[in-house]
Design brief:
The chain is mainly beta. It has two domains: 4-158, Immunoglobulin-like, CATH 2.60.40.2310; 166-247, Immunoglobulin-like, CATH 2.60.40.2550. It contains no helices and 19 strands. The strands form four sheets. It has a six-stranded mixed β-sheet with strand order 1-4-12-11-6-9, with no helix packed on it. It has a six-stranded antiparallel β-sheet with strand order 3-2-5-10-7-8, with no helix packed on it. It is globular. The N and C termini lie far apart (44 Å). The relative contact order is 0.17. Residues 1-18 have low confidence and may be disordered.
């Protein structure tokens, strides 16, 4: 039996992201979600778990949206995939190729046909483990108009797994055009790898990084990257910290 729990997070107002046209509802929990909300699900060994999100266009004009999946932590042997905008995709598709078009005030659940709402699937491994999957919904005409939701599967198992040596990881400027400065606070000196992923999950930049205790700054040149959504991820041992940013 699947159980779902909503955890409310404080929403930090970020310039350029505060006026989203997107409203998300967790269908199984019958709850409207704030930006960066966490939805918690419990899986069963060797079984499928589905979590459904309804997306609504709250603006006064027609808009189209894509869904992007990012596997921040996928339990070994588990497989994540999703359905959206009328089509279901395999685990190697990270962004919906076809956008969902909604009229002003319209929700995906009001459209005819199947799979218009986002259905997040997780096929659990033979043993239950912690997985963290993030979904971003973005306006195809405006990368700043986006909302992210985070799914924690078997959250109790991830309490120790996600204990990070980092106290913060921030990017400036965001959106960026030429260069991004990544500011990292670390509780101790540590070696790790900084990777930049595009919306499809492909690595577009990667470098070894040695952090000192306290404040650190890493500069990245993004001038050659196409406009779009990216993820900067720092990994050290079993700990990974990721932040989204936009290239204009």
């Amino acid at each position: 039996m699947k159980k779902f729990l909503l955890i409310a997070l404080a929403v930090v107002s970020v310039k350029g992201f505060s006026q989203s046209s997107i409203q998300l509802t967790h269908v199984e929990g019958s709850a409207t979600l704030s930006a960066n909300a966490i939805v918690v699900g419990t899986t069963t060994a060797s079984a499928n778990t589905k979590i459904t999100f309804d997306i609504k266009n709250t603006s006064a004009s027609q808009k189209s949206y894509n869904a992007i999946r990012y596997d921040k932590n996928l339990h070994t042997g588990a497989s994540a995939y999703f359905c959206f905008a009328g089509t279901c995709y395999g685990d190697q598709t990270f962004e919906s190729p076809t956008p969902l078009t909604l009229n002003a005030g319209q929700s995906a659940s009001q459209l005819s046909g199947q799979y218009n709402m986002l259905i997040a699937d997780l096929d659990e491994a033979a043993t239950v483990g912690f997985s963290e999957i993030r979904y971003t919904f973005k306006n195809t005409a405006d990368a700043n108009d986006s909302v992210q939701v985070i799914i924690h599967y078997n959250q109790a198992l991830g309490l120790n797994h996600n204990t990070s040596v980092l106290t913060s990881l921030d990017l400036f400027p965001n959106p960026a055009t030429d260069n991004v400065s990544i500011r990292i606070n670390s509780v101790k000196a540590v070696e790790g790898k900084l990777s930049v992923y595009n919306a499809l999950g492909a690595v577009v930049n990667e470098k070894a990084v040695v952090l000192s205790e306290g404040k650190n700054k890493v500069d990245l040149n993004v001038e050659s990257l196409p406009s779009g959504v990216y993820f900067a991820s720092f990994k050290s041992g079993n700990n990974t910290t990721t932040k989204k940013f936009v290239v204009k």
